[in-house]
Amino acid sequence: MAAGIVGQAQQLGQTTVETSVSFLENIYENPYIHGFLALIFALALSFGLITISKILSIFVRNRITKNFAVKDGVAPKKMGILIGDLIFYLMSFLSIYIAFTIAGIDIKLLMSGITIGVGFAFRQTLSNMISGVMIFSTSEYKIGNIVQLRMEGDVFGIIEEINMKNIMIRTFDMRRVIIPNSTFLRKAVKTYSAEEFLRIEADVVVDVNLDIPLVIQETLQTVNAFPFILNKEYTQVLLDSFDDKKAKITVQMFFNPNSGYSSEYIKSLVQIQLLTLYKKLDKDSKALAHKEPLTIKESPQVSLNQK
Fold first, then answer.
1. What is this structure's pTM?
2. How confident is the model at residue 196 (pLDDT cuts 50, 70, 90)?
3. Contacts of 132 (CB under 8 A, 6+ apart)
4. 3-state DSSP percent of the chain in helix, strand and coil, to 5
5. Which H or E run contains 156?
6. Given CA atoms 201, 207, 212, 217 in this order, what sign does their dihedral have?
7. Is 193 helix (H, G, I), strand (E, B) or coil?
8. What is the pLDDT of residue 220?
9. Which terminal residue of the chain, N or C, has fewer Cβ atoms less than 10 Å from its own Cβ?
10. pLDDT digits (tens, 9 = 90+) for 173-193
11. Of 16, 21, 298, 260, whose CA–CA distance to 144 is shortest?
């Protein structure tokens, strides 16, 4: 009798299990319930992958900051944050796609539409962000460096701030110029602070009738008198060419790029001073030419034989 009861219990338990499994299968096969469970699974997997992406982006950011701190002595936190954010958003986007694909939910069309829409809407922003990474990774473009930007109305000043979208330059007339990162990279940029000294040349024309060796000597002294001229022993004043009226002289000099002056401005200062010098030399030369020649009267000679 006990064996019969045990057998009935086993049969009842097996029936119950089969009924439960069949019930769960029917529920899972329901398209609405199946879709809901797949969505929950996709969201949970997306959350997990996004969390991993965040941890990875923080790791990459810290590594970049540490490596640049060893190289330059200053931790560029903004660059690390910028690159970390880019990695996080890209991996988050990819994580959502992977999670929904594993869950069996086809979102290719949706993701393609989002990608195209975001690309058109934020193409300038993305371009500036990528350009910002390139600017951060270039040693010539650092906060405090002196640059000159070739655009409509030259911008010459000190880099004051670099962020994800713009680079801000404080000009020497105290204007604050904000330039998009992508525009900054497309323009021709002269860097000054990255070099200890730079060489420039200035051509001057003088009257060929002047004392050319004296002109060269005075020119050399005048140029080397400027405080922003470096390596004065290498300053050269060369006679380039001449004709029957004019002589062309080339001045080669080295200047301090951190003096706060552009090469064009320095050349202008030098040429103005040289113009003043040559006017003085020309005036002295003409004054000397108009002086009456010195005449020496011969004294009567006395003959030794004269008594």
1. 0.47
2. confident
3. 82, 162, 163, 164, 165, 181
4. 55, 20, 25
5. strand 155-162
6. negative
7. coil
8. 93
9. C
10. 788 888 888 888 888 787 776
11. 260
What type of residue is 175? R
For the ranges 148-157, 203-212, 234-243, the lowest mean pLDDT is seen at 148-157
- Kindly report, residue by residue over 43-88, the tens digit of the pLDDT: 787 788 888 888 887 887 777 666 554 444 444 566 667 677 777 7
Phi, psi of 103 (to 5 degrees): -75, -5
CB 60 within 8 A of CB 90: no
CB proximity list for 87: less than 8 A, separation 6 or greater? 53, 56, 57, 60
Structure tokens at 70: 């060893």
**Predicted pLDDT at 39:** 72
Q: Which two tokens stand for residue 39?
A: 């969505």
Residue of 264, 234, 237 lying closest to 249 (CA atoms): 237
The owner of tokens 């990875």 is 56
Which structure tokens are listed for 157? 């000043």
Of 2.30.30.60, 3.30.43.10, 3.40.640.10, 2.30.180.10, the CATH number of 139-191 is 2.30.30.60
Distances (CA, A) of 215 to 152, 184, 219, 225, 269: 39, 43, 6, 15, 18
Strand 146-149 versus strand 155-162 pairing type? antiparallel
**Region 198-289: CATH code:** 3.30.70.100
Average pLDDT score over residue span 267-279: 90
